[in-house]
Amino acid sequence: MTKTRTTRYDVAEHLRTPEEMAAYLEACLEEANGDAAFIAKALGDIARAKGMSQVARDAGLSRESLYKALSGDRSPGFDTILKVIEALGLKLHAQVVRATPQPVAPAGVSVVASRRQKRG
Q: How far apart are CA 8 and CA 94, in angstroms?
C-alpha cells in the first residue's frame, strides 16, 4: 500500500505579484465578517510573500512585533494595520455597500438636499 504524502498549503508561496496580493486581501476583507484578526492574518500572509524583514523595516516595526501583530492570534491596532498596508504597497478604499435610507419628513414638511459645488 502506497502512502500519499501531503504538504501544508501556504498561500504566501502563491502570492507573487502586487495584483495577486491585492486580490487576496480584497477576498479576505469580503470574507472577514468583522474579524480583525482574520484580516491581520491575511496581511501576515502577504507580508511573508513579500519578505517579512523588508515589510517590518518599511513599516517601522521590529520583525518580531510584526510577526506577533499579524499572527491572527490577536487584533493589532489600526495604526499598525495602516503602517503594514502602506509598507506592502497597498491602499484601502471605501465603497458603498448599500444605499443609506433617505430621511422621511413629517407630513406637510419638505426635505431639501443641497450639495456644495467646488468653485474654481
A: 34
Q: How many domains are contained in the chain? A: 1
The set of cell numbers assigned to 109 is: 414638511
d(C-alpha 54, C-alpha 68), whole Å: 16
Structural domain boundaries enclosing 67: 11-87
pLDDT in tens, 74-100: 889 999 999 999 999 999 888 887 776
Residue 5 lies inside a defined structural domain of this protein: no
Q: What is the pLDDT of residues 45-60, one digit of tens each?
A: 999 999 999 999 999 9
How much is the pTM? 0.75
34 occurs within a structural domain: yes
Q: 30 is written with which cell numbers?
A: 469580503
Give how far the C-alpha of residue 99 lies from the chain's centroid of Cα atoms, to the nearest Å. 23
Q: Confirm whether 77 is domain-assigned.
A: yes
Residue 101, domain member (yes or no): no
